[in-house]
Amino acid sequence: MMERSLFPTARLLLPLLLLVVLPSDAGAEGVDYYELLGVSREATTREIRRAFKQLALTMHPDKNPGDSEAHDKFLQVNRAYEVLKDEDLRKKYDKYGEKGLDEQQGGRYESWNYYRYDFGIYDDDLEIITLDSGDFEAAVNSGEIWFINFYFPRCSHCHQLAPTWREFAKEMDGVIRIGAVNCGDNNHLCRRKGIKSYPSLLIYRAGETPEKYNGDRDKDDLVRFSMQFITTSVTQLWQGSAFTEIESAFASGLGWLISFCSDTGGNAYTQQSYTLQTVCSHSVFNLWRQGNFVKNLQYICFSLSDCLEPRTRQKLAGMLVRVTCLVKEGEIHFDLGLVSLQAKLAHHRWLISFTFGEGNAASNEYKKLQAFLRNDHIQVGRVDCLADVELCHSLYIHKPCVAVFKGLGIHDFEIHYGKDVLYNIVGFAKDSIRAHVTALRPENFPSDRKEPWLVDFFAPWCPPCRALLPELRKASIQLAGQMKFGTLDCTVHQSLCSTYKIQAYPTTVIFNGSSVHEYEGHHSADGILEFIQDLVNPSVVVLDPSSFTERVTGRSVGQFWAVDFYAPWCGPCQALKPEWRRMARLLSGQILVGSVDCQSFHSFCQQQGVRAYPEIRLYQKKSPKQDRYMTYNGWNRDAHSLRAWALSALPRVSVDLTPDTFRSQVLSGKDHWVLDFYAPWCGPCQHFAPEFEVLARMLKGDVRTGKVDCQAHYHTCQSAGITSYPTVRLYTYRGKIINSRDASVIANTVRQRLQHLSLHKKPKVTSLFLSFFHFLVNIKT
Predict the structure, then answer these.
(1) Buried-most residue among 263, 304, 392, 733 (CB within 10 A)?
(2) Which compartments does it reside in (predicted)?
(3) Taking the CB of residue 546, how many other CB atoms lie within 10 A of it?
(4) How confident is the chain (781 residues) per 10-residue block, as mean pLDDT?
(5) DSSP tag of 417
(6) Which helix (DSSP H) or strand (DSSP E) does residue 749 occupy?
């Protein structure tokens, strides 16, 4: 018995990977952008920004007034920066070179003073973590407390705050996380977060609504505001209960900081002793510098590495604090070998730190992991790859890393490629456990699997790759049981990536038996889901010269076609692809949508008069003498703009009503009517007009549709009680209010109402105030 494919029409689709002839060198057309900025292809966004700033300060035309070529030289450097700092543009450049980019980019730059004083305010501050769209959500949802400064480079108040924010960050180092978001570089992120003024200072706690700081912007007030979000618990210990309390806390995974004071030190003890939910050594210093303790203090830690850590002993000794170590059997990190690891991973979730001998600088941070992951039932362990060479070699782990094993065995795991900081690791672990993404190797690569797989070919140093990984996890949850997800590190498995001609990262490919489809679209879970949906039920017809002649040129009367003539190497064409698919779904049943690859059919496209890409055409009602079409010349190429343009070419179904026809046909007639009351100057009315025509076509035969111009027929609209535009009303027996601008929702509501009326067979009431219900009452210009 044949197995049914997830993609029933996949055999009709050409493998996208085979359509693209990639240039061998991304910078073949001119100077290589990476070389121009003096950075490697593995450079992070922060490294690219810092390199550009250094060049801007020396190469800017303002600093080189006698150099006639200074403008052109700096324009080239600026263009390189604008491309490489943008995740999507960087991928297109890596894949197609300069010819894959929009030629209009990089045509202007700022003054030298801007780059000297306004550009990258916090780039050089180690205590302040600069967040961008790729890692913001992981940070604020990690379980740690974040105080984030949303700023704009040209904001004078932001620059006035900067010195204070730096001092404040040093003061709070180790207590909470201090971050900054440049809203000039991350405009969409700031808009999503509701940032309307600069600087905006917000406290973020996982699962809580962000709280905005509105007080004075001095260090002491900022510290006081921050400390109110630090939850503490002070336990009074005495001889009979001390070790009972301590053992109870250990059973819950809590560490202790215990201060022993005389009676006279009671106030200090009460105010400043903490029961820590993490290993205590990292936080004790911030605790002590807030005030003076009495001299008789003991520092008790139940972790051997804490007590032996030199900085801990030195600082405590300087404060005349006696250190006592009570080491519990086993530490937060369990050392795991091959045999024990295989047994443990078969039934439990683990976050494993793979090390090579000595721990790295983040080892103290790793000690806090168990406390943050306890509620997710994730255990924490460590593997020394120098001691377990065979194990690490079998997993293709050749350098220190952190991986999550999902309780399904030793080969079902995912490696963390984000920042090597606590908040990022915690967020990764929680997301990875819920998701269904697996690290791939030659042994489990799905080249010949029957079930569909989405494989992400990536490089860990690539910022767009790292931004895509959390989106893959979201998509894997949505498609659980329908598609499997895997990632392949091309820096480790170079030969396998070369087999599939991977030359840019990330490259996302769907394998479905013998069919291969490369994903081109937004680096988001929604974009991936839409692409897969389109593979299952293609909305865009792939046309060649033969099918174009048969279906478009030979279209029947009343049939309309929207066609995209494109080239795979064209950057704007690639940006249009997901919007074109989305538009096709929105136009389903009204206009047929197709695409022609002009790289594969170059001569045919020339015959059709196509001279630039993308060329978007709408083929209208046929003429006996010529094949009529209209070309899209709009500025916006998003799905909704393209849809509105296409629908505007269709013949109208609704009719224009005058005061006389409104009274005779609507109020006194026997038909049901849906009316659009509008004003020509009203922007929302213009946007809604194509949607109303869609509604008219959907309801044709059941309900008549009409439009009333309230500017021309003001008294008619006033007598109907119209107070805002557009207002849509169904004139029938009675009804209810529905708020919607979606034709399908409106049509379903109307049909349900008509079905209800047919069952009750009630006569139509012609009185104006009893004969209608309306919706869209909340739309005002």
Answers:
(1) 392
(2) Endoplasmic reticulum lumen
(3) 9
(4) 38 32 41 87 79 85 83 85 78 71 58 66 80 78 86 86 91 86 84 87 88 90 89 60 61 57 41 34 33 36 41 43 36 48 78 78 65 84 86 90 88 86 83 92 83 90 82 90 91 90 86 80 79 83 92 85 90 84 86 93 92 90 68 84 85 89 87 89 83 84 90 90 86 55 74 66 36 33 30
(5) -
(6) helix 743-760
Side-chain half-sphere exposure of 506, counting CA atoms within 13 A: 28
Residue whose structure tokens are 């005061």: 659
Strand ordering across the sheet containing 378-384: 334-335, 378-384, 349-355, 401-405, 413-415
**CA–CA separation, 209 vs 224, rounded Å?**
20
Burial class (CB in 10 A: 0-12, 13-18, 19+), 590: middle
Residue 707 CA: distances (Å) to CA of 662, 673, 683, 700 = 10, 10, 16, 15
Residues forming a β-bridge with 619: 561, 629
CA dihedral 333, 338, 341, 343 (to 10 degrees): -150
Distance (Å, whole) CA 691 – CA 204: 40
Instruction: Supply the DSSP string of 358-386, one letter for each residue.
Output: S--TTHHHHTTHHHHHGGGTEEEEEEETT
Alpha carbons 48 and 104: distance in angstroms, whole number: 21
Instruction: Provide the residue count of the chain.
Output: 781
Distances (CA, A) of 686 to 247, 652, 741: 70, 15, 12
**Going by DSSP bridges, is the β-strand pair 592-597/561-566 parallel, antiparallel, or unpaired?**
parallel
d(CA 264, CA 623): 101
Which of 374, 502, 511 lies closest to 445 in space, CA to CA?
511
Handedness of CA 31, 33, 37, 38 (dihedral sign): negative
- Residue 506 in tokens: 């990330």
Q: What angle do CA 575, 577, 579 make, to 5 degrees?
A: 85
The overall pTM is greater than 0.90: no
Rounded to the nearest 10 degrees, the angle between the axes of helix 70-84 and helix 45-59 is 170
Rounded Cα–Cα distance for residues 762 and 741 (Å) = 28
Residue 781 token pair: 């210009």
Strand pairing class (453-458; 484-489): parallel
Coil/strand/helix, residue 156: helix
**Spacing of C-alpha 758 from chain mean position:** 48
E strand spans, 28-145: 128-130
Q: 């059709």: which residue's tokens?
A: 608
Helices (H), 209-303: 219-227, 242-251, 266-272, 284-288
Please choose, from the candidates 528, 516, 549, the residue with its C-alpha nearest in 3D space to the C-alpha of residue 446. 516
